[in-house]
Amino acid sequence: MAAVSGLLSLLCHVAFEARVALSPHDVLLLAWMGLGPLGAAFFLWDAALKRGEAATIGLLSFLTPLLSTGVLLAMRGAWPGPHVLLAAALIVGAALVGTRAR
């Protein structure tokens, strides 16, 4: 499935985005991103699913966009706007509903 997703992403890139020439530095940064944080995330996700409760891990995964948005806002020194607060409430609410549904 990942190969299909990657192929579709590549086709969309070719069809809709401007071509970009990557410098060797850009290639190193992309490799670091894939092998470092992204690779670690996939490794840890796999380990968590093998050792933990899949339903709880799935619910916790909903916090990822909220936490990443919080980190970006903190790095910019910005406060969350009403849309971010509404999204946070919806994410937390969905997680609460999901835990009670079990």
Key terms:
single chain, 102 residues, mainly alpha, 5 helices
Can you describe this structure?
The chain contains five helices and no strands. With 102 residues, it is an all-alpha fold. The protein has two domains: 21-51; 53-102. The model has no long low-confidence stretch (mean pLDDT 87).
Question: Topology, pairings included?
Answer:
Elements: H1 2-16, H2 24-51, H3 54-61, H4 63-76, H5 82-101
Please give the number of β-strands: 0
Give the averaged pLDDT, no decimals.
Answer: 87
* Whole-number tally of structural domains: 2
Morphology: extended
Q: Give the percentage of residues in beta strands.
A: under 5%
Secondary-structure class: mainly alpha
Helix content: over 70%
TL;DR?
Helices cover 83% and strands 0% of the residues.
